Structures are given as C-alpha cells and as structure tokens.
UniProtKB/TrEMBL annotation:
It is an enzyme of class 3 (hydrolase). Belongs to the HAD-like hydrolase superfamily. S-2-haloalkanoic acid dehalogenase family. Keywords: Hydrolase. Its EC number is 3.8.1.2. This is (S)-2-haloacid dehalogenase. It catalyses: an (S)-2-haloacid + H2O = a (2R)-2-hydroxycarboxylate + a halide anion + H(+). The keyword Transmembrane helix does not apply. InterPro entries: 2-HAD, HAD-like_sf, HAD-SF_hydro_IA, HAD_sf, PGP-like_dom2, S-2-haloacid_dehalogenase. Coiled coil: none annotated.
C-alpha cells in the first residue's frame, strides 16, 4: 500500500495531553485542579492557531515559541495566574510528553513489514528528536523531517512538497499518518495519500470534501490494515 509512511508527531505519536497530570498539581493550590483538561485542550488549540496565523503572515518562529505564547494566552484566558517558574516548568514538561501506548508496538510491526517510517512535524528537529528519544521510539524512524528546514508550517503545500523532496518519493508512494484533520486535508490537497488516526471516537472530520484514504482508531489498527 505504501512506500513510506510519514508520521505526524504531536497528537499522533506523542500525547499532547500528557501534561494534564502536571497541570492538576499546579492548579491544586488554587483548588482548580478540575480545570486541567480544559487548560490542556485550550493550550493545544491555541498553539495550532498561532502556527496557522504565523504561516499566513509569513512570520515563522520555532514551534516552541507558538507553544509558549499559547501557554501565556491560556493562563490569561482562564485566569490561572501561573508564575513564570510555573510556566517554565510546564514548557519543560511539554518537551517530555509521553508517546501514546500503542506507538511502540505498532511501529515495531510496521518495521517487520519492511515499511519505511519517518517522523514529520511542525516541531523543530531538535525538539522532535528529543521527544522521540525520551519516549523510546526514535530508533523506529529512518529520519526526522521538520518544517523548520523551509520555515513554513503545516498545512502549507510547500511543507508536503519538502517532505517528498527529502524522501525522494512520488506523491502516490507517500502517506501521511496523522490524528489532525487539518494535516490530513493538507496532505491530500498536496497530492499525498493520508490516513486519519481518529483517536477520539466521536471526533468529527472537517466537511471540506477532502477525505482521508483510510481512517483507523489507533496505530495498532493502522499496522493491522497494512499487514
């Protein structure tokens, strides 16, 4: 089915809500620990929004900069009054987010099938290398392709063209694997194949008339589909 699988990192391989437990601890002193899931969701949503806006403006910055600004915004919006020390600590936690439980075994199975796998992210190469290494899955990937190499953000078509350039692959032989609908649509628009990892059963897909080639509930199901 595929010559090479390009895996999105944040939200697909790495659980961006792995910061919730730390948020609960930080908010316990305010008796607001129940706010942690909402804080995590809004932080992630704003992080993506800032990358989209900067992409449209042609004002590229490292993805971690978007993450830090999104943290600041969410703190203000929810009036959580985190100290600068708290914010720096939370940014450190974000740099050590865990992999989803299904990632390691699914990647091993794909390797056994002889399928090329690469990591493909809005994050910097250094940040992604660190994330994958601490999560214990870096060795499963042939390489890391980061948008910082062309200073654009997904879903800019130039990013997917750069992926193919780096991999020396044809569009029809290149598959994006992502839990993010905007990424799947971006890849399909750019002529790539794409699989949507629908990690939340009731998650809707954007009604743009551009659909994923396949939809799976998790990476285990992806490996099963390809075997």
């Amino acid at each position: 089915m595929a010559t090479v699988l390009a895996f999105d990192v944040y939200g697909t391989l790495i659980d961006t809500h792995g910061v919730v437990a730390e948020l609960e601890q930080r908010l316990a002193g305010q008796d607001r620990s129940d706010l942690a899931p909402e804080f995590s969701r809004r932080w992630r949503d704003k992080q993506l929004e800032y990358s989209f806006r900067r992409g449209l403006m042609g004002a590229y910055v490292d993805f971690s900069h978007c993450t830090r600004e999104a943290l600041e915004f969410t703190d203000r919006a929810l009036q959580t009054r985190f100290s600068e020390t708290d914010k720096e600590h939370l940014m450190g936690v974000y740099a050590r987010l865990p992999a989803f439980p299904d990632a390691s075994a699914a990647l091993d199975r794909l390797a056994e099938l002889g399928i090329r796998c690469v990591a493909f992210s809005n994050g910097s190469r250094e940040a992604v290398e660190g994330l994958l290494e601490q999560a214990g899955i870096r060795e499963r990937f042939e390489t890391v392709v980061s948008v910082e190499e062309i200073k654009r953000f997904k879903p800019d078509p130039a990013v997917y063209a750069h992926l193919r350039y780096r991999l020396e692959s044809d569009p029809g032989d290149t598959w994006l694997i992502s839990s993010n609908p905007f990424d799947v649509i971006g890849a399909r628009h750019a002529g790539l194949h794409a699989a949507w990892v629908r990690r939340t059963p009731d998650a809707p897909f954007d009604p743009w008339g551009i659909e994923p080639d396949i939809t799976v509930p998790d990476l285990d199901a992806l490996a099963e589909r390809l075997s």
